Known about the structure:
Layout lengths: L14 H4 L6 E7 L9 E6 L2 H12 L4 E6 L16 E13 L2 E19 L4 E8 L7 H24 L10 H4 L3 H11 L4 H9 L3 H53 L4 H15 L4 H15 L6 H15 L12 H11 L4 H16 L11
Parallel strand pairs: 1-3
Antiparallel strand pairs: 1-6, 2-5, 3-4, 4-5, 5-6
Amino acid sequence: MADEETPVRTSNEGEKDLRMEIPEVLNLLPLRDTVVFPVLIVPIAVGRESSIKLIDDSVVGGNRIIGVVAMKDPTVESPTLDDVYQVGTAVVIRMMGKMPDGIRLIAQGISRIEILEAVQTQPYLRVRVRVVQEPAQISEEDSLEIEALRRSIADSFQKVVQMSPNLPDELAGIPLNVTEPHVLTDLVAAHLPLSLPDKQKILETFDLKERMRLLLQMLARELEVLELGSKLQSQVHSELSKTQREYYLREQLKAIQRELGEMDENAAQIEELRQKIAEAKMPPEAEKEALRELDRLSRIPSASPEYTVARTYIETMVALPWSISTEDNLDISQVRQVLDEDHYGLEKVKERILEYLAVRKFKPEGNMRQPIL
C-alpha cells in the first residue's frame, strides 16, 4: 500500500494548499507502516487496485485532498474501518506519477483528522471526519510552559542527531529553522526512529502541551538507549584493545627473544603451561585462577623456591580431568578383588569403601554426603 515514510520538511510552496478547506467527507487511503504528520511532505506508493481507483477518482474529480491513516495490522489485504486507527491526516496530493507497479504520490499533510464513520466501503473507503485544528492563540500562562517544552525538545533532538549513526547531521538544523511548537513537534516525531504505535500516539494527542510532553519522554528514552549503546561499545572496544595489545606485546617479545637466541627454558615452559591451560577446558573460574597464577609464575625467578610451588600448583590444575567423566564401577565383588590385589591389610578402610559403594548401588539418585575415609 505505501512505502515507509521518508519525511521531508515543507517549504513555502504549497501554503495556499494548506489553507484549503478540508471537506467533511474524504476518500480514505490506508497506509502500511506509515504515519503521516501534518505539514510534512511524504512519498507514498500505491499498488492495490482499490487504492489506485481512489487516487484516480480524487485527481480526476478535482479534489486533491484525501485522508490517509495507518493500518493496525499491515498484513491485512483488504482493510476495513476496523483495521485502521481512528486518527489520521488530511493530505493534499502535490504530484502523481503512474508506474508499472502502481502509482507514486508526493503528498503534503494538512491537518489531523478524527474518523467519525464510514459513508462508503466499496470500491474504497469514504469517511466522515472531524478536522482537529491547532490552537490559533496560546494563553500567556501556557506560552511559558510551551516555550520551555519547545526548547527542551529542540535540545534533546539535537543531541539524538549527534549521537545516532542513522540520522543525517542536517536534521540538527530543524530546531533552528522552526519556531512554531506544533510544527517542531510533528517534525521531530516524524524523524525520530520511533515505532509505529509511538508515532500514532503522538498523532492522536490533540492537546499541544500533552503532545510535547509525550514527545519529550520519547526523546529522553531514545537518548538513554543511545548513551547506553555508546557506553557498551566503548567498554567492548576498551577490552578488545587491551587483549589485542597484550597479544601483540607478547608476540613481539617472543620474536625479539628468538632473534637474540634468548628464548630460554623458563619462557618455553610458561608458553607450554599456557597452552595446557587452554586445552584443559576448565570452568571459567578455574581458568581465570590458573592464568592469574601463570602470570605470577612468569615474574618469579626460576631459582626461587616459590617458582617450584607455583609451577606444581598449575601443573596439578591442568592435570585434573576437568572435562573427562567416567562411569562408576559399583560391582562390589570386583572392587573387593581390586582392593585386595593392590593393597595389603587396611581392612577397616576397605570395609568403609565397600559400604559406601553398596549404598551408592542401591541409592544412585539424590545427593549423598561424601565420606571421609
